[in-house]
Write a structure and sequence with these properties.
This protein has 593 residues and is of the alpha+beta class. α11 packs across α13 and α13 (517-539) runs parallel beside α15 (564-592). The structure holds adenosine-5'-diphosphate and magnesium ion. Adenosine-5'-diphosphate is lined by residues 234, 236-242, 427-428, 505-508.
Amino acid sequence: MSAPPTTGTPTITRVTGTLAEARPLRDAGLYDLVRVGERGLLGEIIRFKDDVATLQVYEDTTGLAVGAPVVATGAPLTVELGPGLLGAILDGVGRPLARLAAASGDFIAPGATAPTLDPARRWRFTATARPGTHLVAGDVLGTLEEQPGFVHRVLVPPGVAGALRTLADGAYAVADAIGHLGDGTPLHLAQRWPLRTPRPVAERLPADRPLVTGQRVFDLLFPLAEGGAVAVPGGFGTGKTVIEHGLARHAAADVVVFVGCGERGNEIAEVVQEFPRLVDPRTGRPVMERTVLVVNTSNMPVVAREASVYLGISIAEYYRDMGYRVAVMVDSLSRWAEALRDIAARLQEMPGEEGYPTHLASRLGQLYERAGRARACGTPDRTGAVSLVCAVSPPGGDFAEPVTQASLRVAGGLWALDPALARKRQFPAVDWATSYSLHVETTAAWFAAEAGVDWVALRARVLQLLQRDAELREIAGLLGHEALQDRDRAVIEIARLVHEHLLGQSAYDPIDAACPVAKTGRMAALVVAALDAAEAAIERGATIDDLDLAGLRRAYAGLRAAPMALLAERAAAVARVIASLGDARGAAAEVRA
Ligand SMILES: Nc1ncnc2c1ncn2[C@@H]1O[C@H](COP(=O)(O)OP(=O)(O)O)[C@@H](O)[C@H]1O
Ligand SMILES: [Mg+2]
Protein backbone atom coordinates (compact mmCIF):
# COMPACT_ATOMS: atom_id res chain seq x y z
CA MET A 1 0.00 0.00 0.00
CA SER A 2 1.40 3.36 -0.96
CA ALA A 3 1.55 6.31 1.42
CA PRO A 4 -0.99 9.07 0.83
CA PRO A 5 0.37 11.75 -1.44
CA THR A 6 2.02 14.79 0.13
CA THR A 7 1.46 16.91 -2.95
CA GLY A 8 -1.43 17.18 -5.36
CA THR A 9 -5.10 17.93 -4.86
CA PRO A 10 -6.07 18.02 -1.20
CA THR A 11 -8.78 15.56 -0.27
CA ILE A 12 -10.79 14.70 2.81
CA THR A 13 -9.12 12.04 4.94
CA ARG A 14 -11.58 12.01 7.82
CA VAL A 15 -15.01 13.40 8.78
CA THR A 16 -16.39 13.71 12.31
CA GLY A 17 -19.57 15.74 12.47
CA THR A 18 -18.79 19.23 11.22
CA LEU A 19 -15.05 18.70 11.53
CA ALA A 20 -13.06 17.22 8.71
CA GLU A 21 -9.39 16.55 8.02
CA ALA A 22 -7.79 17.15 4.68
CA ARG A 23 -4.34 16.64 3.21
CA PRO A 24 -2.06 17.68 1.77
CA LEU A 25 -2.71 21.27 2.76
CA ARG A 26 0.53 23.02 3.48
CA ASP A 27 0.55 26.51 2.04
CA ALA A 28 -2.84 27.68 3.24
CA GLY A 29 -3.17 29.95 6.26
CA LEU A 30 -4.84 29.30 9.55
CA TYR A 31 -8.49 30.45 9.31
CA ASP A 32 -8.36 30.41 5.53
CA LEU A 33 -11.66 29.67 3.89
CA VAL A 34 -12.04 26.31 2.16
CA ARG A 35 -14.64 24.77 -0.10
CA VAL A 36 -15.28 21.20 0.89
CA GLY A 37 -16.54 18.31 -1.24
CA GLU A 38 -18.42 18.26 -4.52
CA ARG A 39 -21.03 20.64 -3.15
CA GLY A 40 -18.39 23.18 -2.10
CA LEU A 41 -19.45 23.39 1.56
CA LEU A 42 -18.12 26.44 3.37
CA GLY A 43 -15.41 25.78 5.90
CA GLU A 44 -12.39 27.24 7.66
CA ILE A 45 -9.00 25.79 8.48
CA ILE A 46 -8.79 25.81 12.25
CA ARG A 47 -5.67 23.70 12.86
CA PHE A 48 -2.59 22.43 11.08
CA LYS A 49 -0.49 19.43 11.87
CA ASP A 50 2.24 18.98 9.25
CA ASP A 51 0.31 18.85 6.00
CA VAL A 52 -2.95 17.78 7.62
CA ALA A 53 -5.46 20.56 8.07
CA THR A 54 -8.45 20.35 10.38
CA LEU A 55 -11.46 21.98 8.78
CA GLN A 56 -14.45 23.45 10.51
CA VAL A 57 -17.37 23.08 8.12
CA TYR A 58 -20.19 25.62 8.44
CA GLU A 59 -22.80 23.51 6.75
CA ASP A 60 -24.44 20.14 7.09
CA THR A 61 -21.78 17.52 6.30
CA THR A 62 -24.21 14.67 5.62
CA GLY A 63 -22.91 12.72 2.65
CA LEU A 64 -19.40 14.16 2.86
CA ALA A 65 -16.99 11.25 2.41
CA VAL A 66 -13.29 10.49 2.57
CA GLY A 67 -11.64 11.27 -0.75
CA ALA A 68 -13.82 14.30 -1.50
CA PRO A 69 -11.89 17.26 -2.90
CA VAL A 70 -11.02 20.35 -0.88
CA VAL A 71 -10.24 23.72 -2.40
CA ALA A 72 -8.34 26.28 -0.37
CA THR A 73 -9.35 29.79 -1.33
CA GLY A 74 -6.15 31.35 0.00
CA ALA A 75 -8.06 33.94 2.04
CA PRO A 76 -9.77 34.02 5.40
CA LEU A 77 -13.52 34.20 5.86
CA THR A 78 -14.40 37.70 4.73
CA VAL A 79 -17.48 39.83 4.55
CA GLU A 80 -18.37 42.08 1.66
CA LEU A 81 -18.93 45.54 3.08
CA GLY A 82 -20.78 48.08 1.00
CA PRO A 83 -24.16 49.64 0.27
CA GLY A 84 -27.12 47.33 0.66
CA LEU A 85 -26.22 45.97 4.09
CA LEU A 86 -28.83 48.14 5.76
CA GLY A 87 -32.10 46.27 5.59
CA ALA A 88 -30.41 42.95 4.83
CA ILE A 89 -31.05 39.68 6.62
CA LEU A 90 -27.87 37.61 6.52
CA ASP A 91 -27.00 34.18 7.75
CA GLY A 92 -24.01 33.58 10.03
CA VAL A 93 -21.47 33.69 7.18
CA GLY A 94 -22.99 36.66 5.37
CA ARG A 95 -25.29 35.09 2.81
CA PRO A 96 -28.50 37.06 2.25
CA LEU A 97 -31.43 34.86 3.16
CA ALA A 98 -33.84 36.40 0.67
CA ARG A 99 -31.59 35.90 -2.35
CA LEU A 100 -30.45 32.48 -1.15
CA ALA A 101 -34.06 31.39 -0.89
CA ALA A 102 -34.79 32.81 -4.34
CA ALA A 103 -31.87 30.80 -5.70
CA SER A 104 -32.41 27.50 -3.92
CA GLY A 105 -35.88 27.47 -2.39
CA ASP A 106 -36.94 27.85 1.21
CA PHE A 107 -34.54 25.19 2.39
CA ILE A 108 -31.08 26.55 1.72
CA ALA A 109 -29.05 23.92 -0.08
CA PRO A 110 -25.63 23.19 1.43
CA GLY A 111 -22.88 24.91 -0.51
CA ALA A 112 -25.32 27.46 -1.87
CA THR A 113 -23.68 30.77 -2.53
CA ALA A 114 -25.03 34.23 -2.96
CA PRO A 115 -22.97 37.38 -2.56
CA THR A 116 -23.77 39.43 0.53
CA LEU A 117 -24.46 42.50 -1.59
CA ASP A 118 -26.80 42.42 -4.55
CA PRO A 119 -24.47 42.52 -7.58
CA ALA A 120 -27.23 43.79 -9.88
CA ARG A 121 -28.29 46.77 -7.84
CA ARG A 122 -26.99 50.16 -8.93
CA TRP A 123 -26.26 53.03 -6.58
CA ARG A 124 -26.09 56.71 -7.50
CA PHE A 125 -22.62 57.76 -6.38
CA THR A 126 -21.52 61.35 -5.94
CA ALA A 127 -17.75 61.82 -5.87
CA THR A 128 -16.25 64.23 -3.34
CA ALA A 129 -12.55 63.32 -3.50
CA ARG A 130 -10.68 65.21 -6.23
CA PRO A 131 -8.41 63.57 -8.77
CA GLY A 132 -4.80 64.54 -8.17
CA THR A 133 -5.03 64.36 -4.38
CA HIS A 134 -3.12 61.76 -2.43
CA LEU A 135 -5.48 59.34 -0.71
CA VAL A 136 -4.94 57.18 2.33
CA ALA A 137 -7.07 54.45 3.85
CA GLY A 138 -10.29 55.79 5.32
CA ASP A 139 -10.50 58.90 3.14
CA VAL A 140 -14.01 59.58 1.89
CA LEU A 141 -14.30 59.08 -1.86
CA GLY A 142 -17.90 60.18 -2.08
CA THR A 143 -21.40 59.37 -0.95
CA LEU A 144 -24.57 57.61 -1.97
CA GLU A 145 -28.02 57.36 -0.40
CA GLU A 146 -28.22 53.81 0.95
CA GLN A 147 -31.67 54.17 2.49
CA PRO A 148 -33.98 57.19 2.39
CA GLY A 149 -32.02 59.94 4.13
CA PHE A 150 -29.11 57.67 5.06
CA VAL A 151 -25.79 58.84 3.65
CA HIS A 152 -23.39 55.99 2.95
CA ARG A 153 -19.82 57.25 2.78
CA VAL A 154 -17.63 55.32 0.40
CA LEU A 155 -14.18 55.00 1.96
CA VAL A 156 -10.72 54.08 0.72
CA PRO A 157 -10.29 50.54 2.09
CA PRO A 158 -7.68 49.75 4.76
CA GLY A 159 -4.29 49.04 3.17
CA VAL A 160 -4.95 51.13 0.05
CA ALA A 161 -3.23 54.48 -0.63
CA GLY A 162 -2.03 56.53 -3.59
CA ALA A 163 -2.72 59.46 -5.85
CA LEU A 164 -6.27 59.56 -7.16
CA ARG A 165 -6.22 59.48 -10.96
CA THR A 166 -9.91 59.23 -11.82
CA LEU A 167 -13.18 59.23 -9.93
CA ALA A 168 -16.56 59.93 -11.45
CA ASP A 169 -20.17 60.37 -10.41
CA GLY A 170 -22.47 57.73 -11.76
CA ALA A 171 -24.82 54.83 -11.18
CA TYR A 172 -22.64 51.88 -10.20
CA ALA A 173 -23.03 48.29 -9.14
CA VAL A 174 -20.85 47.22 -6.21
CA ALA A 175 -18.33 45.48 -8.47
CA ASP A 176 -17.94 48.40 -10.90
CA ALA A 177 -14.83 50.55 -10.77
CA ILE A 178 -15.81 54.05 -9.68
CA GLY A 179 -12.30 55.34 -10.24
CA HIS A 180 -8.60 54.46 -10.22
CA LEU A 181 -5.46 55.32 -8.34
CA GLY A 182 -2.36 56.40 -10.23
CA ASP A 183 -0.93 52.88 -10.12
CA GLY A 184 -4.08 51.50 -11.71
CA THR A 185 -5.68 50.19 -8.52
CA PRO A 186 -9.44 50.26 -9.10
CA LEU A 187 -11.78 51.71 -6.49
CA HIS A 188 -15.21 50.27 -5.72
CA LEU A 189 -18.33 50.98 -3.71
CA ALA A 190 -17.69 47.81 -1.69
CA GLN A 191 -14.68 46.26 0.03
CA ARG A 192 -13.88 42.89 1.58
CA TRP A 193 -12.87 42.47 5.18
CA PRO A 194 -11.61 39.42 7.17
CA LEU A 195 -14.25 39.33 9.85
CA ARG A 196 -12.10 38.06 12.70
CA THR A 197 -9.83 41.11 12.47
CA PRO A 198 -10.80 44.44 14.06
CA ARG A 199 -10.92 47.27 11.52
CA PRO A 200 -8.27 49.93 12.13
CA VAL A 201 -9.07 53.34 13.60
CA ALA A 202 -6.98 56.52 13.83
CA GLU A 203 -7.53 56.89 17.56
CA ARG A 204 -9.61 55.28 20.24
CA LEU A 205 -11.57 57.87 22.19
CA PRO A 206 -12.91 57.80 25.72
CA ALA A 207 -16.65 57.46 26.22
CA ASP A 208 -18.18 60.85 26.94
CA ARG A 209 -21.87 60.45 26.21
CA PRO A 210 -24.47 57.76 26.67
CA LEU A 211 -26.21 55.61 24.16
CA VAL A 212 -29.68 56.55 25.31
CA THR A 213 -31.65 53.33 25.64
CA GLY A 214 -35.11 54.73 26.34
CA GLN A 215 -35.32 52.36 29.31
CA ARG A 216 -35.52 54.33 32.55
CA VAL A 217 -33.74 51.72 34.64
CA PHE A 218 -30.71 51.79 32.34
CA ASP A 219 -30.54 55.49 31.49
CA LEU A 220 -31.01 56.53 35.11
CA LEU A 221 -29.22 53.84 37.10
CA PHE A 222 -26.93 51.83 34.79
CA PRO A 223 -26.16 53.94 31.73
CA LEU A 224 -24.60 52.48 28.62
CA ALA A 225 -21.90 54.67 27.13
CA GLU A 226 -21.68 55.18 23.41
CA GLY A 227 -18.88 52.76 22.58
CA GLY A 228 -19.47 50.83 25.78
CA ALA A 229 -20.17 47.15 26.18
CA VAL A 230 -22.68 45.64 28.55
CA ALA A 231 -23.54 42.06 29.43
CA VAL A 232 -27.15 41.13 30.15
CA PRO A 233 -27.19 37.82 31.99
CA GLY A 234 -30.51 36.27 32.86
CA GLY A 235 -32.10 32.87 33.07
CA PHE A 236 -34.75 31.67 30.68
CA GLY A 237 -37.77 33.99 30.50
CA THR A 238 -36.22 36.89 32.40
CA GLY A 239 -36.65 39.27 29.46
CA LYS A 240 -33.28 39.32 27.64
CA THR A 241 -34.79 39.12 24.19
CA VAL A 242 -37.42 41.74 24.95
CA ILE A 243 -34.64 44.08 26.12
CA GLU A 244 -32.51 43.45 23.02
CA HIS A 245 -35.47 44.02 20.70
CA GLY A 246 -36.45 47.14 22.61
CA LEU A 247 -32.94 48.54 22.21
CA ALA A 248 -32.85 47.68 18.52
CA ARG A 249 -36.00 49.68 18.11
CA HIS A 250 -35.57 52.57 20.52
CA ALA A 251 -31.90 53.10 21.34
CA ALA A 252 -30.50 56.34 19.93
CA ALA A 253 -28.21 54.65 17.40
CA ASP A 254 -27.80 55.50 13.71
CA VAL A 255 -27.37 51.85 12.77
CA VAL A 256 -28.32 48.64 14.56
CA VAL A 257 -26.79 45.24 13.96
CA PHE A 258 -28.76 42.43 15.55
CA VAL A 259 -27.05 39.05 15.82
CA GLY A 260 -29.55 36.33 16.64
CA CYS A 261 -28.15 33.07 17.97
CA GLY A 262 -31.50 31.64 18.94
CA GLU A 263 -32.27 30.11 22.27
CA ARG A 264 -35.42 28.40 21.13
CA GLY A 265 -36.15 26.83 17.78
CA ASN A 266 -38.68 29.36 16.57
CA GLU A 267 -36.98 32.42 18.01
CA ILE A 268 -35.03 33.21 14.86
CA ALA A 269 -38.13 32.81 12.72
CA GLU A 270 -39.83 35.32 15.04
CA VAL A 271 -36.96 37.78 14.62
CA VAL A 272 -37.08 37.49 10.84
CA GLN A 273 -40.84 38.04 10.83
CA GLU A 274 -40.97 40.71 13.50
CA PHE A 275 -38.18 43.12 12.56
CA PRO A 276 -39.44 43.97 9.09
CA ARG A 277 -42.73 45.06 10.68
CA LEU A 278 -41.21 47.38 13.31
CA VAL A 279 -41.53 51.12 12.85
CA ASP A 280 -39.13 53.65 14.36
CA PRO A 281 -41.34 55.84 16.56
CA ARG A 282 -39.03 58.84 16.13
CA THR A 283 -39.00 58.88 12.35
CA GLY A 284 -42.04 56.82 11.39
CA ARG A 285 -39.73 54.85 9.08
CA PRO A 286 -39.27 51.06 9.13
CA VAL A 287 -36.64 50.02 11.68
CA MET A 288 -35.12 47.68 9.06
CA GLU A 289 -33.92 50.69 7.05
CA ARG A 290 -31.17 51.20 9.60
CA THR A 291 -30.82 47.60 10.74
CA VAL A 292 -28.74 44.62 9.64
CA LEU A 293 -30.01 41.28 10.88
CA VAL A 294 -27.56 38.41 11.22
CA VAL A 295 -29.43 35.22 12.01
CA ASN A 296 -28.20 31.73 12.52
CA THR A 297 -30.61 29.57 10.63
CA SER A 298 -31.44 26.17 11.98
CA ASN A 299 -30.02 24.35 8.98
CA MET A 300 -26.54 25.68 9.70
CA PRO A 301 -24.51 23.88 12.33
CA VAL A 302 -23.94 25.36 15.74
CA VAL A 303 -20.39 26.32 14.88
CA ALA A 304 -21.56 28.90 12.34
CA ARG A 305 -22.74 30.92 15.32
CA GLU A 306 -19.15 31.42 16.24
CA ALA A 307 -18.48 33.31 12.99
CA SER A 308 -21.78 35.21 13.06
CA VAL A 309 -20.80 37.40 16.00
CA TYR A 310 -17.62 38.50 14.19
CA LEU A 311 -19.66 39.14 11.06
CA GLY A 312 -22.02 41.42 12.98
CA ILE A 313 -19.20 43.36 14.62
CA SER A 314 -17.31 43.80 11.34
CA ILE A 315 -20.42 45.31 9.75
CA ALA A 316 -20.81 47.59 12.78
CA GLU A 317 -17.18 48.76 12.49
CA TYR A 318 -17.71 49.54 8.81
CA TYR A 319 -20.53 51.98 9.63
CA ARG A 320 -18.54 53.32 12.59
CA ASP A 321 -15.77 54.17 10.13
CA MET A 322 -18.27 56.29 8.17
CA GLY A 323 -18.85 58.24 11.38
CA TYR A 324 -21.99 56.57 12.66
CA ARG A 325 -23.09 55.44 16.09
CA VAL A 326 -23.76 51.75 15.80
CA ALA A 327 -25.37 49.48 18.36
CA VAL A 328 -24.73 45.74 18.20
CA MET A 329 -27.12 43.40 19.96
CA VAL A 330 -26.11 39.78 20.47
CA ASP A 331 -28.81 37.35 21.61
CA SER A 332 -27.26 35.37 23.06
CA LEU A 333 -23.52 35.27 23.55
CA SER A 334 -23.85 31.97 25.41
CA ARG A 335 -24.73 30.28 22.13
CA TRP A 336 -21.51 31.72 20.68
CA ALA A 337 -19.53 30.38 23.64
CA GLU A 338 -21.17 26.98 23.26
CA ALA A 339 -19.97 26.92 19.68
CA LEU A 340 -16.43 27.48 20.96
CA ARG A 341 -16.92 24.65 23.41
CA ASP A 342 -18.20 22.40 20.68
CA ILE A 343 -15.21 23.10 18.48
CA ALA A 344 -12.73 22.66 21.32
CA ALA A 345 -14.29 19.35 22.33
CA ARG A 346 -14.08 17.98 18.81
CA LEU A 347 -10.48 19.10 18.56
CA GLN A 348 -9.95 17.26 21.84
CA GLU A 349 -8.38 20.34 23.39
CA MET A 350 -7.80 20.32 27.11
CA PRO A 351 -11.10 21.57 28.53
CA GLY A 352 -11.27 24.37 31.09
CA GLU A 353 -14.13 25.22 33.39
CA GLU A 354 -17.40 23.45 32.55
CA GLY A 355 -15.94 22.14 29.33
CA TYR A 356 -15.34 25.57 27.82
CA PRO A 357 -11.92 25.97 26.20
CA THR A 358 -9.28 27.63 28.35
CA HIS A 359 -9.08 30.48 25.85
CA LEU A 360 -12.77 31.40 26.39
CA ALA A 361 -11.96 34.44 28.54
CA SER A 362 -9.39 35.85 26.12
CA ARG A 363 -11.62 35.29 23.10
CA LEU A 364 -14.47 36.98 24.92
CA GLY A 365 -12.17 39.84 25.87
CA GLN A 366 -11.15 40.33 22.23
CA LEU A 367 -14.79 40.42 21.25
CA TYR A 368 -15.82 43.03 23.81
CA GLU A 369 -12.69 45.02 22.88
CA ARG A 370 -14.14 45.68 19.45
CA ALA A 371 -16.69 47.97 21.06
CA GLY A 372 -15.53 51.56 21.42
CA ARG A 373 -15.68 55.14 20.33
CA ALA A 374 -13.08 56.12 17.80
CA ARG A 375 -11.84 58.71 15.38
CA ALA A 376 -11.90 57.05 12.00
CA CYS A 377 -8.89 56.81 9.71
CA GLY A 378 -8.72 59.33 6.88
CA THR A 379 -10.36 62.64 6.13
CA PRO A 380 -12.63 64.45 6.63
CA ASP A 381 -12.65 63.93 10.38
CA ARG A 382 -15.28 61.43 11.56
CA THR A 383 -16.08 60.04 14.98
CA GLY A 384 -18.11 56.90 15.35
CA ALA A 385 -18.89 54.27 17.93
CA VAL A 386 -19.71 50.62 18.26
CA SER A 387 -21.72 49.84 21.37
CA LEU A 388 -22.27 46.25 22.31
CA VAL A 389 -25.11 44.69 24.28
CA CYS A 390 -24.68 40.97 24.82
CA ALA A 391 -27.37 38.81 26.34
CA VAL A 392 -25.93 35.90 28.30
CA SER A 393 -28.03 32.88 29.19
CA PRO A 394 -26.42 31.13 32.15
CA PRO A 395 -27.65 27.55 32.47
CA GLY A 396 -30.10 27.39 35.37
CA GLY A 397 -29.71 31.16 35.81
CA ASP A 398 -26.51 30.65 37.79
CA PHE A 399 -24.20 33.65 37.29
CA ALA A 400 -21.21 31.72 38.63
CA GLU A 401 -20.79 30.02 35.24
CA PRO A 402 -17.81 30.86 32.99
CA VAL A 403 -19.49 32.95 30.26
CA THR A 404 -21.15 35.32 32.75
CA GLN A 405 -17.99 35.54 34.83
CA ALA A 406 -15.72 36.20 31.87
CA SER A 407 -18.18 38.84 30.57
CA LEU A 408 -18.16 40.54 33.96
CA ARG A 409 -14.43 41.01 33.79
CA VAL A 410 -14.41 42.74 30.43
CA ALA A 411 -17.76 44.50 29.99
CA GLY A 412 -18.21 48.08 31.15
CA GLY A 413 -21.61 47.31 32.54
CA LEU A 414 -23.85 44.58 33.83
CA TRP A 415 -27.61 44.49 33.57
CA ALA A 416 -28.38 41.48 35.73
CA LEU A 417 -31.87 40.06 35.33
CA ASP A 418 -33.67 38.53 38.28
CA PRO A 419 -36.03 35.58 37.83
CA ALA A 420 -37.94 36.54 41.00
CA LEU A 421 -38.86 39.90 39.45
CA ALA A 422 -39.77 38.22 36.16
CA ARG A 423 -42.04 35.80 38.02
CA LYS A 424 -43.79 38.81 39.58
CA ARG A 425 -44.09 40.15 36.00
CA GLN A 426 -42.05 43.16 37.02
CA PHE A 427 -40.28 44.13 33.79
CA PRO A 428 -37.58 44.94 32.88
CA ALA A 429 -36.57 42.48 35.60
CA VAL A 430 -33.31 44.29 36.40
CA ASP A 431 -31.73 43.47 39.75
CA TRP A 432 -30.60 46.93 40.85
CA ALA A 433 -28.44 45.54 43.65
CA THR A 434 -26.23 43.41 41.38
CA SER A 435 -26.22 45.52 38.22
CA TYR A 436 -23.60 48.18 37.61
CA SER A 437 -22.23 50.59 35.05
CA LEU A 438 -18.72 51.95 34.81
CA HIS A 439 -20.08 54.87 32.77
CA VAL A 440 -22.08 56.75 35.38
CA GLU A 441 -19.54 59.54 35.73
CA THR A 442 -18.60 59.83 32.07
CA THR A 443 -22.20 60.17 30.91
CA ALA A 444 -23.49 62.35 33.78
CA ALA A 445 -22.80 65.72 32.16
CA TRP A 446 -24.63 64.76 29.01
CA PHE A 447 -27.69 63.51 30.88
CA ALA A 448 -27.72 66.56 33.14
CA ALA A 449 -27.66 68.89 30.14
CA GLU A 450 -30.35 66.93 28.33
CA ALA A 451 -32.74 66.58 31.28
CA GLY A 452 -31.89 69.81 33.10
CA VAL A 453 -31.37 68.02 36.42
CA ASP A 454 -28.37 66.87 38.44
CA TRP A 455 -28.41 63.31 37.09
CA VAL A 456 -25.82 61.85 39.43
CA ALA A 457 -27.47 63.29 42.53
CA LEU A 458 -30.88 62.07 41.37
CA ARG A 459 -29.50 58.62 40.67
CA ALA A 460 -27.87 58.51 44.12
CA ARG A 461 -31.15 59.48 45.79
CA VAL A 462 -33.10 56.78 43.95
CA LEU A 463 -30.51 54.11 44.76
CA GLN A 464 -30.48 55.22 48.37
CA LEU A 465 -34.26 54.89 48.52
CA LEU A 466 -34.05 51.37 47.06
CA GLN A 467 -31.39 50.51 49.62
CA ARG A 468 -33.48 51.76 52.54
CA ASP A 469 -36.49 49.93 51.17
CA ALA A 470 -34.53 46.67 51.02
CA GLU A 471 -33.33 47.09 54.59
CA LEU A 472 -36.79 47.93 55.90
CA ARG A 473 -38.33 44.97 54.13
CA GLU A 474 -35.76 42.76 55.73
CA ILE A 475 -36.64 44.10 59.16
CA ALA A 476 -40.35 43.69 58.42
CA GLY A 477 -39.65 40.15 57.30
CA LEU A 478 -37.96 39.37 60.59
CA LEU A 479 -40.06 41.34 63.07
CA GLY A 480 -43.34 41.81 61.25
CA HIS A 481 -44.78 44.88 59.55
CA GLU A 482 -45.85 46.28 62.96
CA ALA A 483 -42.20 46.79 63.83
CA LEU A 484 -42.06 49.57 61.23
CA GLN A 485 -42.66 53.18 62.09
CA ASP A 486 -44.80 55.46 59.94
CA ARG A 487 -41.75 56.99 58.37
CA ASP A 488 -40.48 53.53 57.35
CA ARG A 489 -43.86 52.66 55.89
CA ALA A 490 -43.82 55.84 53.84
CA VAL A 491 -40.38 54.91 52.50
CA ILE A 492 -41.66 51.47 51.49
CA GLU A 493 -44.75 52.94 49.81
CA ILE A 494 -42.71 55.42 47.80
CA ALA A 495 -40.11 52.78 46.91
CA ARG A 496 -43.00 50.81 45.46
CA LEU A 497 -43.56 53.64 43.02
CA VAL A 498 -39.92 53.32 42.01
CA HIS A 499 -40.10 49.56 41.49
CA GLU A 500 -43.40 49.53 39.68
CA HIS A 501 -43.53 52.75 37.74
CA LEU A 502 -40.12 54.42 37.59
CA LEU A 503 -38.00 51.33 36.88
CA GLY A 504 -40.85 49.20 35.63
CA GLN A 505 -41.61 49.82 31.99
CA SER A 506 -43.90 47.97 29.62
CA ALA A 507 -42.43 46.91 26.32
CA TYR A 508 -45.94 46.64 24.92
CA ASP A 509 -47.35 50.08 25.72
CA PRO A 510 -46.67 52.30 22.69
CA ILE A 511 -45.75 55.32 24.85
CA ASP A 512 -44.16 53.60 27.85
CA ALA A 513 -41.97 51.34 25.67
CA ALA A 514 -39.43 54.13 25.13
CA CYS A 515 -38.89 56.96 27.59
CA PRO A 516 -37.18 60.22 26.62
CA VAL A 517 -34.39 61.28 28.97
CA ALA A 518 -36.27 64.42 30.01
CA LYS A 519 -39.22 62.30 31.10
CA THR A 520 -37.02 59.87 33.02
CA GLY A 521 -35.46 62.81 34.85
CA ARG A 522 -38.88 64.29 35.61
CA MET A 523 -40.25 61.01 36.95
CA ALA A 524 -37.18 60.44 39.13
CA ALA A 525 -37.26 63.99 40.48
CA LEU A 526 -40.95 63.64 41.38
CA VAL A 527 -40.40 60.43 43.31
CA VAL A 528 -37.58 62.04 45.28
CA ALA A 529 -39.75 65.11 45.97
CA ALA A 530 -42.55 62.83 47.17
CA LEU A 531 -40.18 61.08 49.54
CA ASP A 532 -38.90 64.37 50.94
CA ALA A 533 -42.42 65.74 51.38
CA ALA A 534 -43.69 62.59 53.09
CA GLU A 535 -40.73 62.43 55.45
CA ALA A 536 -41.03 66.11 56.28
CA ALA A 537 -44.74 65.75 57.02
CA ILE A 538 -44.14 62.80 59.33
CA GLU A 539 -41.29 64.69 60.95
CA ARG A 540 -43.78 67.46 61.74
CA GLY A 541 -46.21 65.06 63.36
CA ALA A 542 -48.37 63.65 60.56
CA THR A 543 -49.19 59.94 60.59
CA ILE A 544 -49.05 57.65 57.58
CA ASP A 545 -52.85 57.78 57.35
CA ASP A 546 -52.74 61.55 56.98
CA LEU A 547 -50.76 61.17 53.77
CA ASP A 548 -52.67 60.67 50.54
CA LEU A 549 -50.34 57.92 49.30
CA ALA A 550 -53.13 56.27 47.31
CA GLY A 551 -53.68 59.54 45.48
CA LEU A 552 -49.94 59.78 44.90
CA ARG A 553 -49.88 56.28 43.42
CA ARG A 554 -52.75 57.03 41.08
CA ALA A 555 -51.27 60.29 39.87
CA TYR A 556 -47.75 58.85 39.53
CA ALA A 557 -48.92 55.79 37.58
CA GLY A 558 -50.45 58.21 35.08
CA LEU A 559 -46.99 59.42 34.10
CA ARG A 560 -45.93 56.19 32.46
CA ALA A 561 -48.23 56.29 29.49
CA ALA A 562 -48.04 60.09 29.20
CA PRO A 563 -46.66 61.29 25.88
CA MET A 564 -44.31 64.29 26.15
CA ALA A 565 -47.16 66.62 25.17
CA LEU A 566 -49.12 65.59 28.26
CA LEU A 567 -46.21 65.18 30.63
CA ALA A 568 -46.24 68.71 32.08
CA GLU A 569 -49.94 68.43 32.90
CA ARG A 570 -49.64 64.99 34.53
CA ALA A 571 -46.47 65.96 36.37
CA ALA A 572 -48.34 68.98 37.75
CA ALA A 573 -51.05 66.62 39.03
CA VAL A 574 -48.38 64.58 40.83
CA ALA A 575 -46.82 67.77 42.18
CA ARG A 576 -50.21 68.82 43.61
CA VAL A 577 -50.50 65.55 45.53
CA ILE A 578 -46.92 65.98 46.75
CA ALA A 579 -47.75 69.49 47.95
CA SER A 580 -50.76 68.08 49.81
CA LEU A 581 -48.42 65.61 51.53
CA GLY A 582 -46.58 68.64 52.87
CA ASP A 583 -49.92 70.14 54.02
CA ALA A 584 -50.90 66.94 55.79
CA ARG A 585 -49.22 68.03 58.97
CA GLY A 586 -51.23 71.23 59.13
CA ALA A 587 -54.50 69.42 58.41
CA ALA A 588 -53.73 66.63 60.85
CA ALA A 589 -52.64 69.05 63.58
CA GLU A 590 -55.88 71.03 63.16
CA VAL A 591 -58.02 67.90 63.49
CA ARG A 592 -56.18 66.84 66.62
CA ALA A 593 -56.33 70.27 68.21
N1 LIG B 1 -40.35 45.02 29.37
C1 LIG B 1 -41.29 44.06 29.34
N2 LIG B 1 -42.59 44.41 29.37
C2 LIG B 1 -43.56 43.47 29.36
N3 LIG B 1 -43.32 42.16 29.34
C3 LIG B 1 -42.06 41.73 29.31
C4 LIG B 1 -40.97 42.66 29.31
N4 LIG B 1 -39.82 41.96 29.30
C5 LIG B 1 -40.17 40.65 29.27
N5 LIG B 1 -41.51 40.50 29.28
C6 LIG B 1 -42.25 39.21 29.28
O1 LIG B 1 -41.36 38.13 29.57
C7 LIG B 1 -41.39 37.15 28.53
C8 LIG B 1 -40.04 36.49 28.35
O2 LIG B 1 -39.11 37.45 27.86
P1 LIG B 1 -37.91 37.02 26.92
O3 LIG B 1 -37.23 38.31 26.51
O4 LIG B 1 -38.34 36.14 25.81
O5 LIG B 1 -36.97 36.21 27.93
P2 LIG B 1 -35.54 35.55 27.66
O6 LIG B 1 -35.05 36.03 26.33
O7 LIG B 1 -34.69 36.04 28.79
O8 LIG B 1 -35.75 34.08 27.72
C9 LIG B 1 -41.90 37.92 27.33
O9 LIG B 1 -42.54 37.09 26.42
C10 LIG B 1 -42.86 38.91 27.95
O10 LIG B 1 -44.11 38.32 28.19
MG1 LIG C 1 -34.42 35.07 24.65
